[in-house]
Every structure is written in structure tokens, then in C-alpha cells.
């Protein structure tokens, strides 16, 4: 039996299938399907969309759905006590005719039809027995094809149009993949360099901190979903925020995803900070915080006392609802890079 790895939605959410709508609505006005209901339970429907708010948790549940589980062994009506999944989908189960389709391999699918009353159970059972093997395979191909196309579009955007450098690293900080912006950044060999023993920063101390953070991120020791680092930028007056996020490949091989925003113009940062609710004075302080400058140097540039600068800095953190200056720098840099202040 061949199989395909799918990212599936929670059982109460049904992914729209055009093929299902075209094929089964001849038997009923609507159709709901649970493929491999006892294992992966991929849910398809003839109308409606999955809830985007639950995609992130559902997409983490990569399950194996049998593409060709063998011949259909039986098709039988489902008793009322087994139709709770229809109720959980937000429908009146009594109005639906539901069928359990069992394959010789042991795989069990469930199909529910909202009929007008003209179709008898024997007719539905006969049609499902005749077409279900081919129809379920077509639905799976449609589902995986659309998901693959969406994934390809996302990867293309990150690779060619995303304004930040994105690098995928192993536990030793070796670069496995990067987008175009990341490749250009590495080619400059100023902020970061790819060398034989891993990714290196402009200074030895930043290199050590970066590699330690990558190792802890991949191992899951950081205890946070995202780690923010500030490293020296040879082309800028201060330090640049970097983001590290752990990616679990699902097969025991975890990786780290490094994101490095392009440094925006300080005036752009000030404008953004005011859009985000800061006063002009606070926005000026925020722009200097974004540069990662020491307090004394930042206060001198701003033309205010260091104590005054610290007071403004606390207000900035409070208004931006962040816990530290690194988070504030990251927020302002990335929001400006996304064009909010244009």
C-alpha cells in the first residue's frame, strides 16, 4: 500500500474539496468525509473552509493517510450513536445519512450525506461501493496538490521577495539553506560569514554567543519559542537584532531558523514609533534603542541626560508591551521593514 504524509486539520474542521462537491452532491446537497477515521482522520467537506485560527496547531499533526488501502470490503449505514462527529461539525446528525466504508486493509472511512429524501440507503451504498476507492484517491491528490502548491508559493516568496535574510541551521550552526537576501548578506562577509566550523559573526564574542544560542535552540534548552540576539553591525552605528526559532522536522532532526532583518533608516524608525503610539521624544529614544547603542552614548546623541534617557526607555518598553530592549529593537526593525512606516 502506498501512503502520503499529510498535514491535517482537527477532526471538527473540514477542508473544502472541489472533487468531493462535484462527485457526491449528486447523492446529497452536502457531503462530509473523514478519511482513515481511526488513525489520521483527514476531514473533507463539499463546502466551508477550515478555521485559520487553528491552522498552526492542526498543521503540526502530520499523519499518514493511506492513498490506496486496497479494495472496499463493506459499506454500511452508521447507527445514530456513531454520528457524533457530524454534531461536532455543527450539523444536526439526524438530518444526515452516514456510512462507514471499510477496506480489506482495515482502514475505515466515514461519509455523511445531507439528502433531500429521494435517495435510498441501498442506492447510496451501491454508488459508494462502486466509486469510493477512486474518489478518495482523487480527493487526496487534490488536497496534497493544493497544499504543495501553497507551500511552494510560500517558499518562493521567502526566497525571492522577503526583505529579511532567512537561514536554516543545524545544531553546529552550519547553513543548510538560505534565501536570496541571506545569500547576498553572506557574500558581503561583513555581518555574518559561513566558514568550515559554522556561521561566524563580525566579532569572536558574537560568534560564540550566536553558536551557543543555535545549539541551545536546536536542543530545546532555551525554554522560549524565540530567542533574540543583538550582534555588532560593521555597517551600522549599533547592534542588529537576530531571531532564532526552533523547527521540529518531525523525524527527530530539529533545526534552527535564523531571521535577520534589513536595517531601516533611523528616521523611518522614529516615524513608525509615533504611529505605534509613542510621543516624538519617546520615538527618538526608541530609534536609538533600535540601534543597540549603550545608554550613555545614546543619551549623548539624543542631547539628554542618561537618567532621562532611561526614563524614556522604560516608557517605550511599556507602550510597546515588550520585556526588554532587544525585543523592542526587533519589533521596530521588522515592522519598519514590512513597510508600516512608509
UniProtKB/TrEMBL annotation:
It comes from Rubellimicrobium rubrum. SUPFAM superfamilies: C-terminal effector domain of the bipartite response regulators. This is Helix-turn-helix transcriptional regulator. InterPro entries: Sig_transdc_resp-reg_C-effctor, Tscrpt_reg_LuxR_C, WH-like_DNA-bd_sf. One of its GO terms (biological process) is regulation of DNA-templated transcription. One of its GO terms (molecular function) is DNA binding. Residues 275-332 form the HTH luxR-type domain.
